[in-house]
Amino acid sequence: MSLSAGHIPSLPGTYVLSLFLKRECRLTVGKLGAIFFKPGFYAYVGSALGPGGLRARLRRHLKAQKKYHWHIDYLRRRARIVGLWAAAGTHRLEHRWACRLIASRPHAAVVDGFGSSDCSCKSHLVHFELAPELRDLDRILGAQWHWSWVDGDLSRSAGNDG
Ligand SMILES: [Zn+2]
């Protein structure tokens, strides 16, 4: 089963997208300029606190071809979405999650400034050589996930509603 936005509620929340890039590539990412992307998995942290919430945001991410708006849109054109973790809530958790993801990967490539033009995070994009597993993210982020999906299965986790 592939992921569709219909699986995700229109609630505000914070999410981690997992993307898979099959081949290395060099992309020009807006004002960041040319960036070399290694193949493998990427975790991107964002929040969707506006109208339409998580569902509207996911719908946008799932579309590969669109006008570039966020840094992630450039990578999305080349990379496949293979996982989603989302928690509903109106608190903006993305920066805390981004910091934790970076701290969890001391030797991994962090794409400097990616997705973090408007905040003080080093980045909102972290490279993983192997697919991040749900339990890894649970541990890293200390979050109670509400919806998670890894290349096929969507499940609602036993998280609290905060
Ligand atoms: Zn941030």
- Supply the number of helical segments: 4
Radius of gyration: 14 Å
Helical proportion?
10-25%
Low-confidence stretches: 157-162
Mean pLDDT: 85
Instruction: Note the overall shape.
Output: globular
Largest sheet: 6 strands, antiparallel
Strand order of the largest sheet: 6-4-1-5-7-8
Ligand kinds:
zinc ion
* Beta-strand percentage range: 25-35%
Distance between the termini: 29 Å
Instruction: Decide which structural class fits the backbone.
Output: alpha+beta
Give, in order, the helices and strands: EEEEHHEHEHEE
The overall strand count is: 8
What topology does this entry show?
Elements: E1 13-21, E2 25-29, E3 33-37, E4 40-48, H1 53-62, H2 71-76, E5 80-88, H3 94-104, E6 125-128, H4 134-141, E7 147-150, E8 153-156
Antiparallel strand pairs: 1-4, 1-5, 2-3, 4-6, 5-7, 7-8
The structure holds zinc ion.
The site of zinc ion has 7 residues, from helix 3.
Overall description:
- The chain is of the alpha+beta class and 162 residues long.
- The protein has one domain (11-156).
- Helices cover 22% and strands 30% of the residues.
- The protein has helices at residues 53-62, 71-76, 94-104, 134-141; strands at 13-21, 25-29, 33-37, 40-48, 80-88, 125-128, 147-150, 153-156.
- The strands form 2 sheets. The chain has a 6-stranded antiparallel beta sheet with strand order 6-4-1-5-7-8. Strands 2-3 form a two-stranded antiparallel sheet.
- Strand 2 (25-29) and strand 3 (33-37) form a beta hairpin.
- The chain is globular and about 35 Å long.
